[in-house]
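#lab-general

N.A. 3:47 PM
ok so I finally got the sequence cleaned up, no stray characters, all 104 residues accounted for. can someone with queue access submit it? mine expired

B.Y. 3:52 PM
send it over

N.A. 3:53 PM
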Amino acid sequence: MVNLLSREVLNYTVGGCYIGDIINFNEIIAIKTMREVFGNDDSFCHCDVCVEDTYALAMNSLPSRYIQVTSVEKYTQSSDFIDDKAIRESIIQAMEKVRAEPNH
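B.Y. 4:20 PM
back already:
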C-alpha cells in the first residue's frame, strides 16, 4: 500500500487525460497558513511528528475542495469557499490538541 502512495509511482493519467492539476485548494491554503502560524509560535514543538500531526488533524477537520488549477478565482467566489480565517482556526485548534498530547 505504501508504494501506491508514493508521488513517484502515481500516474495521474486516466483515459488519456492528465488529472494531476486537480488540487485540494484548502490544502494549499492550510500549508501557507501553517508556515505563518508556526513561524510566530516558538513555544510549539516543530519536530516532524508534531508538524505532521497538526497538518493531519487540521486537514481532517476541513472539507476537501478539489478544483482545477484554472478555476481558483471561480472557487473563491463560490458559496463553497472556506476563508483563510476558518482554516487558520482549524490549524490553531489542531496545534492545541498536539500540544496537549504530543505523539513523541
